[in-house]
């Protein structure tokens, strides 16, 4: 029994493809391929919303967003991710309700926020290593950060993946990919990434 690890995070939740089954809408796509582009956009947006709600790793979001761009074969991966996140959101909701009663933040929610903070600190450091000054200034303008303001890199690191609209997600993924050195994700990585949400026998 073996398990592959990937850049994604499981958050202690294991959901196999068998557990998931296939969404009735997705299972009918083979009969009506023309429905897939619209269904992909809907599912992708729901996943982005869930990432935001569940404080999912910025690197995980970036890999997933860039790896699964709408090919019909991506449908099962999107379904697994959607179910995993829905399960995680329910866990978050239960924990937040408990914490509201107790008046303190701990457990999974606090841990996820801490991980996000560490990722943003990593992106902040990478900007100096990966981006020439001119490119950084161009990015500041693009992201609405005044060139004469203080801690511009930190401001930028704190803005990526903070909204759920598609344009913001696209720009965030592009920037994070540049900073972590992810240039052209290949098919092999896609297949391995898909396995991050389920175990398999070797």
UniProtKB/TrEMBL annotation:
Domain of life: Eukaryota
Parts forming coiled coils: none
Protein keywords: Microtubule
Molecular-function GO term, any one: microtubule motor activity
Cellular component aspect of the GO annotation: microtubule
InterPro entries the UniProt entry points to: Kinesin-like_fam (IPR027640), NACK_C (IPR021881)
One Gene Ontology biological process: microtubule-based movement
Domain (NPK1-activating kinesin-like protein C-terminal) ranges: 39-196
PANTHER family: CENTROMERE PROTEIN E, KINESIN-LIKE PROTEIN KIN-7F
Name of the molecule in the record: Kinesin-like protein NACK2
Lineage, opening ranks: Eukaryota, Viridiplantae, Streptophyta, Embryophyta, Tracheophyta
């Amino acid at each position: 029994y073996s398990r592959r690890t990937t850049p994604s995070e499981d958050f202690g939740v294991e959901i196999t493809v068998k557990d998931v089954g296939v969404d009735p809408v997705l299972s009918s796509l083979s009969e009506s391929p023309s429905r897939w582009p619209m269904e992909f956009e809907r599912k992708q947006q729901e996943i982005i919303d869930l990432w935001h709600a569940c404080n999912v790793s910025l690197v995980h979001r970036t890999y997933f967003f860039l790896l699964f761009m709408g090919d019909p074969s991506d449908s099962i991966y999107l379904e697994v991710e959607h179910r995993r996140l829905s399960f995680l959101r329910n866990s978050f909701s239960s924990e937040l309700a408990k914490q509201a009663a107790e008046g303190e933040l701990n457990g999974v929610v606090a841990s996820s926020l801490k991980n996000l903070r560490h990722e943003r600190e990593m992106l902040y450091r990478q900007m100096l290593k990966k981006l020439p000054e001119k490119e950084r200034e161009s990015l500041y303008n693009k992201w609405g950060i005044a060139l004469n303001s203080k801690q511009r890199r930190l401001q930028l690191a704190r803005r990526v993946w903070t909204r759920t609209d598609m344009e913001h997600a696209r720009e965030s993924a592009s920037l994070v990919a540049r900073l972590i050195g992810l240039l052209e994700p290949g098919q092999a990585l896609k297949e391995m990434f898909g396995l991050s949400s389920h175990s398999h026998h070797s």
